[in-house]
């Protein structure tokens, strides 16, 4: 079995890798790749599971035992299994095994379904708990990185994120990757976030309870990248200062509060799936005038 799958619908062509079930490329009909493929950040669209962000000291106390979980978890670095590959999509699955249980002692089944149609690329996640006795405690998030500027030679500072609805709420405050007390004033004016590298000098913008479920990322008068999501409760926006990408990240969960010292299952921002229960979410992206 090959390590990646290319699929197309004429308008878009996508490539997904078995490693991390990662979207590595999304090209329009001109061949322009909308997904980041540079060296400043070595990823494209990693899957964040079973945690999002950092734990304090990378430490999780589960059933009285200490486990080490590094930033964003392990899904992005594991090999997923192909379930289906077609001309316009694919399905990949990752399940627990002895190596995952050594660092995260829960049963799980994580499936990703990629699909292209006339409305763009759609990615649907299904997280299931196959255990007959134990609750699954976990977070799941997306981290797609899109090119910025969208149009070659356009100024980066001329781009904006235009939300579906006004976003007046304060943002979470991060220090060394952990949530700390206090709020970060929102840089959104009404529905408009004017983009600039300096926005990310203190890490990601984290909207804990965004009103919107879609946004437009575009330059003045230019074609827009329309991004929408469902099922997720948080939204992160991030870039590495000095680089040429923008990450639009719907999440179900977030980094640990710096003050949190309890057992993992009490960590804020987790899903709690009963035996046999599933949780679903997804996101879509397309180009529009």
From TrEMBL:
InterPro entries for this protein: Aldose_1/G6P_1-epimerase, Gal_mutarotase_sf_dom, GH-type_carb-bd, LacX
Gene3D superfamilies reported for this sequence: 2.70.98.10
Pfam families hit by this protein: Aldose_epim
SUPFAM superfamilies reported for this sequence: Galactose mutarotase-like (SSF74650)
Domain of life (superkingdom): Bacteria
The protein, known as: Galactose mutarotase
Source species: Asaia krungthepensis NRIC 0535
């Amino acid at each position: 079995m090959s390590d990646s799958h290319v699929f197309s619908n004429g308008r878009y062509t996508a490539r997904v890798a078995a490693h991390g079930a990662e979207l590595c490329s999304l090209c329009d009909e001109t061949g322009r790749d909308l997904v980041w493929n540079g060296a400043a950040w070595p990823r494209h669209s990693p899957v964040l599971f079973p945690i999002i962000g950092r734990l304090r000291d990378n430490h999780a106390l589960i059933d009285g035992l200490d486990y080490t979980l590094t930033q964003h978890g392990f899904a992005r670095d594991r090999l997923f299994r192909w379930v289906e590959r077609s001309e316009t999509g694919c399905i990949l699955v990752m399940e627990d095994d002895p190596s995952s249980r050594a660092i995260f002692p829960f049963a799980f089944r994580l499936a990703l379904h990629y699909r292209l149609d006339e409305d763009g690329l759609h990615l649907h996640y299904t997280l299931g708990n196959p255990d007959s006795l134990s609750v699954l405690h976990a977070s799941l998030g997306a981290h797609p990185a899109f090119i910025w500027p969208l149009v070659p030679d356009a100024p980066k500072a001329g781009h904006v994120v235009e939300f579906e609805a006004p976003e007046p709420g304060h943002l979470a405050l991060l220090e060394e990757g952990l949530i700390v007390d206090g709020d970060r004033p929102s840089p959104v004016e009404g529905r408009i976030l004017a983009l600039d590298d300096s926005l990310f000098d203190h890490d990601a913008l984290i909207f804990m309870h965004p009103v919107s479920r879609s946004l437009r990322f575009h330059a003045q008068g230019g074609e827009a990248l329309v991004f929408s999501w469902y099922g997720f409760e948080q939204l992160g926006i991030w870039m590495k200062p000095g680089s040429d990408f923008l990450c639009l990240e719907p999440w179900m969960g977030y980094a640990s509060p710096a003050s949190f010292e309890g057992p993992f299952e009490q960590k804020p921002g987790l899903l709690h799936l009963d035996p046999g229960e599933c949780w679903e979410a997804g996101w879509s992206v397309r180009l529009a005038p």
